[in-house]
Design a protein that fits this description.
This protein is α+β, with helices and mostly antiparallel strands and 417 residues long. Helix content is 40%, strand content 15%. The chain has 13 helices and 19 strands. The strands form 6 sheets. Strands 2-1-6-3 form a 4-stranded mixed β-sheet. A 4-stranded antiparallel β-sheet has the order 11-18-15-16. Strand 15 and strand 16 form a beta hairpin. Helix 5 runs antiparallel to helix 13. The radius of gyration is 26 Å and the shape is globular.
Length: 417
Amino acid sequence: MKADTYVSSGVPVIRGTNISGGRSLKGDWVFVTEQFAAEMPNCIVEAGDLVFPHRGSIGEVALVEADTAPMVLSSSMMKFRPDRERLNSCFAYYFFKSLAGREEILRFGSQVGTPGIGQPLSSLRQFRLPLPRVDVQGQIAAVLSTLDDKIELNRRMNETLEAMAQAIFRDWFVDFGPVRRKLEGATDPVVIMGGLMPDPASAAELEGLFPDGLGQNELPLGWTERPLDQIAEFLNGLALQKFPARPGEPSLPVIKIAQLRGGLTDKSNRAATDLPERFIVRDGDFIFSWSGSLMAKVWTEGDGALNQHLFKVTSIAYPQWFFARWVLHHMPEFQSIAASKATTMGHIQRGHLSSAATVCPPELLLNEMTRVMGPLWERTIHNDLESRTLAETRDYLLPRLMSGEVRVGDVDQGSVI
């Protein structure tokens, strides 16, 4: 299937990039026409099918769900359709997510050149899976999918929280919406706050602290403009090869750009624990990679060691949500600067932090803003931490349920969510 067959809408095409590491297919979609898909019946997938890459990221798997089917496979993918009378599709997915299942896929793979499975159809027919009774398969799948469903719910909730926080931040600090609506003659507190605070009492309490006009600098009266590096401290990480982990002693995973983007794995480097405390990253710290893949996020994967090319961002004077939102606000600009560098790894310099302007309200107003923005920010962090615990529980139960070491009746489903 070539790129020139893609159209703007139609039947989605499953590519390797649509396997996100979770059960569901996600990502950017390309499409083919229904007529084109009909001419390739063997490539059409249905709800309950499993899909695997046979080139590139072999060992990955996703489950086609009812709300996404039908779809069509790209040439780099293969499908596995369980016999529904003998094999529960969701159980099969979790088997292939287990170490034993991944090893079963990789049994047919080659690591020479681009990783791949040379004869996909023949390999699929040789896959070996455990086959407990179908009702037991369903019970195992139900336990594991309950955990994944909650993780997915948290992810969607965080998308909503992020959209809300971004809309409020832009209205208050970029567009100066409440001030401008006052200048336009608005008197209803809910209207002045742009409908973002539907409770009249809360809207009235907050809008009264916004000034009634703009100064000559086009900022709200009483507000000040400050460089980004004056509202927060940007601590660069260490060259952690100078703090190697020592055999038999406690160690910390090294947080590099790859870990910030994709999380910790068993392959993450380790560092000694006796590095200076300020270079240890804890849950809830805000981390910003300033070279390579520029991004910023709150860290929620446990203690780690801050590697060079990453900033840990903190502030004594301002709440985390405030300086973090300003970093995120300037991120597209920083990414553009890094992309323009004529080097293999683009980056920004500290001077770019000094050139990035922020707008700071008086302390009393900022405190009241925190009553609105703080809970949105903290709830997002809580959801990420909860999802990590859920994923750890799932990963602990997965091999034990598959092997029979733990039986479904031994799992208190209420305690795992």
